[in-house]
């Protein structure tokens, strides 16, 4: 009986020892697995941080290139603007010199008091056509670089905008006749309307208004 109790005691101790060993091993395994996961996560975080640093560096480099491109574009635009301004200035100076060097060699005035343009009309009368034919003769006698300037005028009766339009229509009628009937190149004819401005006679009288309703043709070389 004593031997049996002793055997049970030894068995119980052995069983307790085995359970304790099994529990410690399980804990070690779990701890190892957790450590592995922590190391894996840490490695992943480090890799992510490294990629982030590289991306930030690439973004900064791209931003610097964009800034450089913008600077180059701005500089190119400034150069183009300066070049265009210089060209415009040169063109204006050339036009000014060209106009300054021209001189009037012949001038004809077509006005209502001479039987030409009627009140409120832009149609070119036969009398005006005959006088324009004389202008062409003068052109043929000076064929080198002759230039024609046609100025349209009106009296001050009515709306100024309408009168400016009427003056231009009268000047255009002269230009059209010179081109259609005498083949004067269009680039050698310039038209302008002064409307009621620059009167040559008082607009208070009928005769004065008739004189102001006119077209002036100037031949320049």
Structure notes:
With 221 residues, this protein is α+β, with helices and mostly antiparallel strands. The protein folds into two domains: 1-101; 103-220, OmpA-like domain (60s Ribosomal Protein L30, Chain: A, 2-Layer Sandwich). It has four helices and four strands. It has helices at 2-101, 126-141, 160-182, 206-212, and strands at residues 104-111, 147-153, 189-195, 214-220. The protein has a four-stranded mixed sheet with strand order 1-4-2-3, sandwiched between helices. α3 (160-182) links the parallel β2 (147-153) and β3. α2 crosses α3 (160-182). The chain is rod-shaped. Residues 2-10 have low confidence and may be disordered.
Strand content is 5-15%
Query: What is the number of helices?
Result: 4
Please state the oligomeric state of the protein chains shown: single chain
**How is the biggest beta sheet arranged?**
4 strands, mixed
The shape is rod-shaped
Elements, N to C (H/E): HEHEHEHE
Number of domains: 2
How many E-type strands? 4
Give the C-alpha Rg.
51 Å
Structural classification: alpha+beta
Question: CATH first level of the largest domain: which class?
Answer: Alpha Beta
How are the strands of the biggest sheet laid out side by side? 1-4-2-3
Uncertain parts: 2-10
What's the CATH H-level homologous superfamily of the largest domain? OmpA-like domain
Q: Which fold name corresponds to the CATH topology of the largest domain?
A: 60s Ribosomal Protein L30, Chain: A
Q: What is the correct CATH architecture of the largest domain?
A: 2-Layer Sandwich
Helix content: 55-70%
Could you report the average pLDDT, rounded to the nearest whole number?
76
